[in-house]
Zinc carboxypeptidase
Amino acid sequence: MKKLIKLLVTFLLTLTLLVPSSLSIYAQTLSMEDTHLSLTEKKSLDFEVDFKEEISLDQLSFSLGDKPLSEWKAFNMETEAYDLKPWIRVEDLSIDGNVLKGKLVNSLPYGLDATDLRPYPRWTFEELLGTYPLVVKDEGSGAKASIDIEIQNYTGFHKYEEIQPDLDALIAAGNEKGDRFFKYESIGQTDEGREIPMVIVAKNEETIDHYLNNTLTEALNDPAKLSEKIAQDDPTSYQVPIFINNTHPDESPGIDAQIDLLKDLSTKEEFIFNGQEKDSLERLKVSDVLDNFILIFCVTLNPDGKAENQRENSHKLDINRDNIYQTQAETKAMSATLAKYNPLTFIDLHGFVPEFLIEPTTPPHEPNFEYDLLMGGEMDPDTKDVVDDKPGAIGHARAMGDVGIANSDYTSYIIPMFDYGDGWDDAFLGYTAVFSLIHGALGHTVEIPAQNQQSLLAAKHAVLGSIKYVLDNKTVLYQNQLEIFRRGIENEDNKAVDSWLVKADGSVGGRPRGENDNFFPDYYILPMDKSLQKNVNEVYDMISYFLRNGVKVYQSDIEVTYKDITYPAGSIVIPMNQAKRSLANVSLYQGTDESDWGAMYAEIVLNYPKLHGFDSVEVRQADLFADKLTEITEPLSKPATDQNIESDQVVIKANNNDALILVNKMLADGKEIQIVNESSDEIAMGDYLANTEDMKGYLEGLLVNLVESPDSIKATKVEPPKIYLTPSSSNYAELADETRFVLNQLGFTIVEDIKDANVVVDSSGVFEKDALKDKNYIGIGSMALQAVKDQALYPLEIQMNEDGGGNEGLLKANYDLTNPISGSYQSDDIAYVSSGSVMNQPRPEAKIFAKVADDDDFYLEGWWPGHDFVQGQVLGFADSMEDQNFVFFSTDVTNKAHTRYLYRLLANAIYSINSENFIEGEGLKVSVPKKDIQVETTEETTEEPR
Ligand SMILES: [Zn+2]
């Protein structure tokens, strides 16, 4: 049988070789200057063909691809089908002898001059793209003529698979010229295995080496000296990087504009475009640009998203929220690349804001930024502008906007700092462009208006406007960046920053220094000793994180005592007197309360020690570690778990996330795990009990804390969880996507059919009440809780600001140590809410295991206007009603996969919800009466664009 098939294939192949396409034997080729139709631009393409025989006009038929032109129907937004009259047709047909002339005309298949509108055409337009043969046939004589026609989104658009061939070709072309150097560099691989493509353009390879090995090294070690030197030197004696990026690949002109620029750079001697001044013409020589700069293009940071024409990555997470958390392969790659190249400017090309938006942002600004140096000076409180109009991000934005509109159909642009009051802030470093500010780069999110060619032109010329501006102001701008590094190295808290740090009422708040003169401490100690560190696993992670981000990390050589506590040799120390101290500090400091603002764009709580759950000590004593430190340059590997256990049964402490991975591995292999229902000095409610020998085979790569089991211990068997996750409520990244990512990361078993599940984990509120009948249910966050209430799945009382789904707070919280869900926490601990709700007194039968602290100062940081009503209210409880078990969290335990300290709450809820004695513990009491909500917020409900 096999042989026959092989023969047949050979025969077919031979046939194909002997008889090329049947068309080309007798068909003529149409002659056309332009063979591109467009989805976003009405076009009319002249064609002409000599049939070399007689044809008849009324016998002619036209087809494109495999269907007649009459079948190329336009899209109907109402029926969501292609059922309107055809959008491609022929016009002005005439015959002169045997020669046919006419026009191939397209109107707009979606009725729009851009393809960014969601859901249509945004999510469907790619299905129309491609190259199709246009065939003209005389039905009488059978005479044919044809030509290939390409249907484009707009001129210059690339589908994912078209990017790399174009990059390869332009890199070859650029290097062919001999006077410039093009280099492809993959900055990393996505979880689906795609390379993240970056192209570097420089004068030659030596300029890149010289920058990395000399200029940047000196900049980070002795910026003051370098600053003096460049003031004297010819600016072309050194080159600094300019970085262009795209984070959201379905904002496609951000990709195409880069490829367009690269093509020009690979072939042209100069760029000629309309300049910043009205009616001026700018000539920018490629040689001048490369004498001064190294151009870096990360064509798209999200190739998996590009392949699917979607905003999010393959985990459905938004990487433009993840740059400071770095939970995703893409942001790990970007952060390492930013630390490696440390660009002077960073432009992230996004869409779509019809007004053409270019950052800088509205306040509040993250206080760790050296904002005066980034903007070009102190802010004038009256004009809200920079004193003396010095070079900086504001002038840079204007140059981008002016040149962007001078070379496209647009006539204006906006800068949030001046055109919005609030709501487009940079208090959060999750956005790629904002993240670059912490490296001292002039970072800008640029939001082009639409998905079409005009926006490609606007984006491309915004970049050219940027290059021109940075060329004109190179020395000053680079000196400002060097000054940022100098402030770091001298751990100087320069008060010039304060003018930018305004409150919502317009008054200057400055950096939140508390009782201290210096906003920055002298050191952070991350203890490694068990007695001083509650989760050493997270410290190993932080070491890798800091090294990836260019923060210097040290280990103490000898023991050091600070405030009566002795930190043994080997403690991890982050000194603040270093160039990238702000990056370290932003991750480790307390954070700010911005609740007086009416709107914020996204979360602002970062606080790694609290949300990853490790001990970090702020040291305010200069020279405490002078001459006592050794630098760590490679991540430290976690030691192996101490397996010295004599007892047959072992208690696995539920005090880090490796314990969850271990338990899930064992459960997946059918090993028995019990959840502990009693506590002692060493053992907490909610720890796990396993057979010691069973466990030993699963420890590789995991660092868990083990305790010998006493002869008798109360514990309940864990029914291996089979989790059904409710789907997202939209196509945008949301808590449900983060929950899926986290549970996968922890190794839980997730089933796709609710019928196969023994627990439903809901963080979207997307469910049918009937389908949940008899299923144990865990609801997380306000969308789930609201749906539970609306569908009367359970009698729930929740409180939240109107439109307050984006309100967040790091809160002081109390946990019930007699409940296995919360038994491994402290009775006075923290919680985190990012979707704005708390629950009020539940049914008397319910067991409250987490609540907001009763103290007046319960609110630690975040953005939650009018958060008084939250005080003392419920964050989590368990209940059993009519044979159905429930756990409710208003704590967003999986938010952005950053809340690692809180994962154990969810895990233990999952492990215990199917057990017979599920409802346990004494339960916490609500003692602060329910308060009325005093504030109506005006939060922007849309997460998009940006
Ligand atoms: Zn975007």
The pocket of zinc ion is lined by residues 248, 251, 320, 350, 945-946 (CB under 6 Å). The longest strand covers residues 88-96. Residues 815 and 825 are 7 Å apart (CA to CA).
